[in-house]
## 1
Amino acid sequence: MLDMGWFSWFSGLFGKRTFDKPPAFVPVKNHVRASSFADPADIRRFERCKDSGLSDQECFRIGDNGVGCYGDDCSAGSGPSCALPPEVMEQNWGGTLAAKHQPVRVARDNKEVTCLIKDRMPHLANIHNGARIDLNPDAGRALGLEPPFMVDVIWWKP
């Protein structure tokens, strides 16, 4: 058996060190623009478009069907949810599938909400309004916002 007495004496020269708990994790906070999605007016625009005979892809240009990329309900009353660009999902969770239902904290004006990732935004190169996170109506209301909105927020992984 190794005698650790020398180690105690040596480490005492540099002050007492404790390893009771690991250092606190400091999340990376992203200051970005947030837009709303899947609000009732957005869904009505999508449905009117579909009723006119256009394709889903054509109708997504003017509205939203309220269904996320994983098949989840993202409409009002489904709980706070968000969407992020695929590149952001890749960078933070390793891919879009790994990002499914991951929690994301969002803050604005001293209000915070935890959202689940239930949808995917377009690729960054295809986003022209400057938004880097989409929030559903429930997430927006938790932050004191009524859709439609485009506001500055902070988001991070808890």
## 2
Amino acid sequence: MTVPPLPPEPAEEKDLRKREKEARRLEAERGPLEPAFRYKAILNAVEAGQDLIELADRKARFALVIISVLNAVALVLVVRGGDSFIPRFGVWGAVSQAEIVAYVLVTIYYIFQAIEALRPRGSGPTTDPLPTSGAPSESMRVLFHGDIVRRDRADFRRAWEELRMDNLNTELADQLHVIARINQDKYAALARLYRGVSVMTALLTLTLVTIAAWHLTR
């Protein structure tokens, strides 16, 4: 005995179910993120912020390489040039020496900007009491190394066992805020450093032009 086939679903009912499904999808997109999706979004933002920190450090090291090349050229001019190459007396001597002194001072200043761009940053360990229970939407402070080492191993494991998704998302959001501040400070120092590279290049070029003009007027 064969089972008779089910009657086809009415087109109106099928269309109604499709519209309801689309409405639920739009409501989910317009509403708050689910904790798991929020975790992925914040984690991606944290990783992107860390990539920006590494990029800033690489750019600062590259600027130091350029400064080293400029300084090598300046050192050859001063040490190996001699009196026959660099003017020592008169108006030309005063101008070239002023340019060299300015170059040295600018170099020292912008080396400090390189240090500012490369120095470690971040919120250091605090003396605030660490949370012992996972209150809703509060950070349990289980990710930052300064907070981790303040707990013994048993307390640290227990904190992770009691950890809620909203606790984790709150702490990741705090870390993202810290990383954003680090990047803001780093890139501000990096901008000053590259302005310094431009100023040093201009000063060294001006010194070479002064030396060339002196040779042409001798």
